[in-house]
Amino acid sequence: xxxxKKIELVMKTPTQEIVTKEDLxxxxxxxxxxxxxxxxxxxxxxHIGTGLATSLKVKDLLEAGCKxxxxxxxxxxxxxxxxxxxxxxxxxxxxxxxxxxxxxxxLPEDKVDYILASNLYDSDYWKTVLDISRNTxxxxxxxxxxxxxxxxxxxxxxxxxxxxxxxxxxxxxLKVQIAHSGMDQRKVHMLxxxxxxxxxxxxxxxxxxxxxxxxxxxxRMNATEEQVIDAKMSKSKPDSAIFVHEPESEILRKVKKAYxxxxxxxxxxxxxxxxxxxxxDHPLKIERPExxxxxxxxxxxxxxxxxYTSGALxxxxxxxxxxxxxxxxLKPVRDYFGKHPKYLKExxxxxxxx
Length: 354
Prior knowledge:
The protein is of the alpha/beta class. 49% of the residues lie in helices and 10% in strands. Strands 1-6-5-2-3-4 form a six-stranded mixed β-sheet.
């Protein structure tokens, strides 16, 4: 595969930004199989922004010849107080339900490395954490704690100051060449790129994916970056997110209730799910009676947005089409957990409900 095709795969939606495209080109010129990673806190159920969007992008990277790693960030989750701050519970969910969601979505262990963070951490790792901290101001570190889903002004434990340095150290310890995350993690990637020369480390290419909006949508026009991040899918608000293992009836129920204002495409979750999850690989098919315009297919975002904002496409027709696609795309997860019920049973036994 030529380099331009590889770059095209990495840039394919839901990618929003590459820092930088020139660095990515150089990377592919010098490495046939660049090392990639994406890290996750383990905070309960996996939604389509976490699971489905990530699996689609990792498959793109595999096709481009990359060696992907999914990093199960148990210590980071512990610092952030998720799952009640119970480290053993965090690890069990990480290596049980969470990892197996990705396996079910088509990322088997013979193609993707799954690493539990604390298994990596040795004296060299903690030295790297301190070295990054030595080369970073306190104010910069405080600005970076927003990657934890917290504002700088929030009351947090002092351990939170370590979080950005640990995340940057993960990149260097794994010898990652492509650091992958949602746009909400951008600050720590910029930190890693900035300190890399001071540590004698390779500067990673930063790959940032779009944050899929909540089913409640971004209801303010001209929303700020912080408002967009606040409006992303959240496990803490079950009806704001579609979880990858949910039954068909629950997916369709949530889609039916979703924010989808007539003739408004901006901040509309149904439009964004169609663009970032469906249209990237095949047309979106609208099935409706002839009296309402008959069946139609959209192959590009521009076609879809034009039809929707003009009123030629009704919200309910869009919802029906997107709901049907999500049901089909998540069928492998339902089937997988149907055959391996113990992973969901573990969550039930821990009383994890979202």
